[in-house]
Amino acid sequence: DSEDDDDVTEETPVIGFWSGFAWLVGMTAIIALLSEFVVGTIEDASNSWGISVSFISIILLPIVGNAAEHAGAIIFAFKNKLDISLGVALGSATQIAVFVVPLCVIISWIMGITMDLNFNLLETGSLALAIIATAFTLQDGTSHYMKGFVLLLCYFVIGACFFVSNRPLGEYIFTPLLGFY
Questions:
Q1: Backbone angles phi, psi at 16, to 5 degrees
Q2: From the centroid of its chain, how far is CA 181?
Q3: Cβ neighbours of 88 (radius 10 Å)
Q4: d(C-alpha 22, C-alpha 28), whole Å
Q5: Mutual orientation of helices 17-40 and 42-49 as an angle, nearest 10°?
Q6: What is the DSSP letter of 11?
């Protein structure tokens, strides 16, 4: 920090505007193609692994897809920057809930694909549980290990519910994963 406020140093950009824009468009196209490939293989993976499609698409896919974001939030939490860590986590969830989901519904209507926000009981209950647990955890503005542990347990309970959903009654849960018949 200098006492002279008139000395403002300008940082020079590494790439120009148009090359940055071209990289952004190119990477967006590549990620769109890869996302289409991943979504196209979910049903095949579900059949071969013996796991429900809802577990793969609600639990596994977001973990893999947002790995860099999760790593950043964890690094900020270790550096005691919880406001940034919460901003990353809650900002992403808010962006998906407020922008991406309604946009997908509108685009599907335009394309003639039947898609609505009619969730089943498990999806609605898990969403309500996650919102209530997060609200109670964040309401007093403090954090400690027990609150994080409660949120992790809530996530594992929701994951377990989706793992056992859409299975015939009496089917042993770990049979397809272990290969025992």
A1: -80, 175
A2: 34
A3: 20
A4: 10
A5: 40
A6: P
Q: Using a pLDDT cut of 90, give the percent of the chain over it.
A: 13
Q: Across residues 145-173, what is the average pLDDT?
A: 78
- Lookup result for tokens 């309500």: 128
Contacts of 23 (CB under 8 A, 6+ apart): 15
In the predicted structure, residue 26 carries a pLDDT above the cut 90: yes
Q: H or E element: which one contains 44? A: helix 42-49
Q: What is the DSSP letter of 80?
A: T
The residues spanned by each domain of the chain are 51-164
Query: Do residues 31 and 23 touch, judged by C-beta distance below 8 A?
Result: no
pLDDT tens digits for range 86-120:
888 788 888 888 888 889 889 989 999 888 778 88
Q: In the structure encoding, which two tokens stand for residue 30, read together? A: 């590549």
C-alpha distances (whole Å) from 128 to each of 28, 85, 137, 154, 176 are: 32, 22, 14, 11, 30
Helices then strands, counting H and E runs in the chain, come out as: 10, 0
pLDDT digits (tens, 9 = 90+) for 32-54: 888 888 878 888 888 888 888 88
Alpha-carbon distance of 139 to 131, in angstroms, equals 12
31: amino acid identity, one letter: I
